[in-house]
Amino acid sequence: MKRAVRLLDAGRSRPLPALALVLTLVAAGFAAWAGQDWYRAAHDEQAAYAVQRDAALSAGEQAVQNLNTLDHRELKRGLDLWESSTTGELHEQLASGREEFAAQVKEAKTVSTARVLSGAVTELDDRAGRARVLVALRVTVEAADGAKTDKDSRMLGELTRTEGRWKLSALGQAPVGGTPTG
């Protein structure tokens, strides 16, 4: 009788191993799909371009803010920050005129503080390491007598990537609507 019972059990399917096999195949398929998706995202040129654009914008905004902020009581620190934010011809101009400018600021005893209102990258050549930014900022100037004045301005900056960092290589006022460029 035992033999007959064994023969009846031999014909039955076992659902647990079949279910485990199906779940394993589904998990492997999902892992392959997710891995392929991750690989595509990691090697996407548009994502790398966006990272460089964001880095250029952040560095440009900070550098423009740095060059519009200066306190006569911490002049050396402020001018050092100006020089560390720049490169190329702009850097050379700041370094060569540093002493004369420092004397003017000490005499005037002013404190200027800039705050970035908004910014945008207008051009980016990631391969050449060059970018242009437009930055709107509010500069507050406090005179020696305590009087404060606010001035909103738009600045155009050119950035150059040096040693893996974006630095200002040129800076100027952006033309206001109706003002001829030239």
The helix content, as a percent range, equals 40-55%
| E-strand count | 5
Gyration radius over CA: 31 Å
Strand order of the largest sheet: 1-2-3-4-5
* Helix/strand structural class: alpha+beta
Major pleated sheet? 5 strands, antiparallel
Secondary-structure element string: HHHEHHHEEEE
Overall morphology:
elongated
Provide the β-strand percentage band.
Answer: 25-35%
Rounded to the nearest angstrom, the distance between the terminal CA atoms is 107 Å
- Total helices: the number is 6
Low-confidence blocks of residues: none
Average of per-residue pLDDT values: 89
Attribute tags:
182 residues, five-stranded antiparallel sheet, alpha+beta
Question: How would you characterize this protein structure?
Answer:
The chain is α+β, with helices and mostly antiparallel strands and 182 residues long. A 5-stranded antiparallel sheet has the order 1-2-3-4-5. A hairpin with a 2-residue loop joins strand 4 and strand 5.
